[in-house]
Each structure stands twice: as structure tokens, then as C-alpha cells.
Amino acid sequence: MITVYGRPDSSAVARVMWTIGELELAHQRIDWGGSFGGNDERDYRDMCPSGKIPAIKLADGETLWESNAIIRYLCDAQGGNDFLPNDHLRRARIEAWMDWSPAFQAAVSSIRKAYKPGSANQSDIDIVLKQVEPSLLILERQLSGQDYVMGSAISAADFALGVWAHRLWRCPPEAKPTNTPATWAWIERLQARPAYQEHVMAKVSAGPQSIGGG
Ligand SMILES: N[C@@H](CCC(=O)N[C@@H](CS)C(=O)NCC(=O)O)C(=O)O
Q1: What is the pLDDT of residues 56-80, one digit of tens each?
Q2: Which of 10, 59, 80, 122 has its CA 20 to 30 A from that of 207?
Q3: CA 183, CA 122: separation in Å to the nearest integer?
């Protein structure tokens, strides 16, 4: 049984929970961080030096922090899956997309910040869309002509990127990029997956901008 510490509407927690769902691992999640607090508790800091969420505790008491490191560990420990294969080059290519994922998160975050519910200023949104376009087009180019980030099968690269993709999808029409058709098709493919529905789509809080929490 894996214990995950983290509130469910956190993007970093959601990507770990989604991975757990895809791997069908026995788990429990304890509300932590945000309004639940606990980040600065001494025992939590021992598990997670940054004090951020998520952190996990394994059945044997071992712990791990940083969501992408957790995803890597879970995929490896479970073994026998293509999410993070042993082939060194293919694995490194998947990890490259995982390492790049903060750039995608930053782009989507900027769009969300530019959108003010009820008083959205289209020219402000357009300026931000233009600013983040290079990042969005990096992923768009990769997804063109294939179902998932690394080809025909889902991998840890999708787990690292797919949660912020959902936050992009939740943006109102006027704040959505129009030149990323492969990205939208990929998001629809993710949305058909039960583990994504349960751990990503159903767990986004209303948040201050009504388009999802961080
Ligand atoms: N790089 C870290 C980032 C973790 C992070 O920033 N988590 C945010 C939530 S998404 C957090 O802990 N916020 C404070 C809180 O929720 O208490 C990871 O991927 O695990």
C-alpha cells in the first residue's frame, strides 16, 4: 500500500495519482498541503525537504518526494510496462519530455493568469497567447501524427504533461490557443482514460479563476 500525501486538486499530486491509477497500485491518499497544512511538520520535512506536495510513503516506510521522481520510481518498481522502458535511449527521450514539462506548465499558467473571469480583456489574453506560443508549439509539433507524446503508447511523458494539459483544456474559448489541433486531439485521448478521469478531471477545484487549481 502506497500512501500519498497531498491535496487532490494539486497538479503535482494529480500526476502521481494518475500514474498510480494507470498502474492499478493499492494506495491511500492523505489530504496534505494547502488549507490542510502539514507542510512544515518536522516529520513531513524529513520525507519531503522542500515542504511541497506530494510525498509518498511505501509499505516498508521508505519515502520519496518530487512528483516526476515519484512517477519514475512507480513505473520502474511496478515493472513490465512501457510507461518508462528499460531501453536506455527510449527512456532518456521520455525523461527529456518529463524534464521539459515545467516549461509547458509555465505557459499554461501564464494563460490562466491573463484570464480574469467576468472582465477578460481579449487583447491581454492575445498578448500572452503570443508569448507562450513557442512553448505550446514545441509540444504540438511532437504530438503531430502520433497519439501520445512518445508515439502510439502512453508513457511517463504523458503523465508529466497531461495534468497541465487538462488545465489548458479548461480555459475558456477566448483563452484557448487555436493553432494546436494535435494537442487538443491528444487531450481528448487522455480524457477517455478512466484513471485520468478519476485522478485529473474529477479533482480540479474551482480555484480563484474558476478554471482549476494549481
Ligand atoms: N516540483 C515539485 C513541485 C511541487 C509543488 O509546487 N507543489 C505545490 C502544489 S502543486 C505545493 O506544494 N504547494 C503548496 C501547498 O499546496 O501546500 C513537484 O513536482 O513535486
Answers
A1: 999 999 999 999 999 999 999 987 7
A2: 122
A3: 22
Find out whether 149 and 143 touch, Cβ atoms under 8 Å.
yes
53 pLDDT above the threshold of 60? yes
pTM, two decimals, is 0.94
Read off the C-alpha cell for 204.
480540479
- Which atom, in ligand 1's list, is nearest to the CA of 102? 1
Q: Which residue has the cell 536506455?
A: 88
User: What pLDDT, on the 0 to 100 scale, is given for residue 206?
Assistant: 53
DSSP H or E segment with residue 64: strand 63-65
Q: Is the CB of 52 under 6 A from ligand 1?
A: yes
Pocket flag, ligand 1, residue 34 (CB < 6 Å): yes
Query: What domains can you pick out in the chain, each with its CATH number?
Result: 2-78 (3.40.30.10), 88-200 (1.20.1050.10)
Mutate which of 52, 71, 100, 108 for ligand 1 pocket (most atoms within 8 A of beta carbon):
52
Distance (Å, rounded) from C-alpha 177 to C-alpha 97? Answer: 21
What's residue 208's pLDDT?
39
Q: Which of 10, 41, 105, 167 best tests ligand 1's pocket when mutated (most atoms within 8 Å of CB)?
A: 10
- In this structure, the residue with its CA closest to atom 9 of ligand 1 is 10
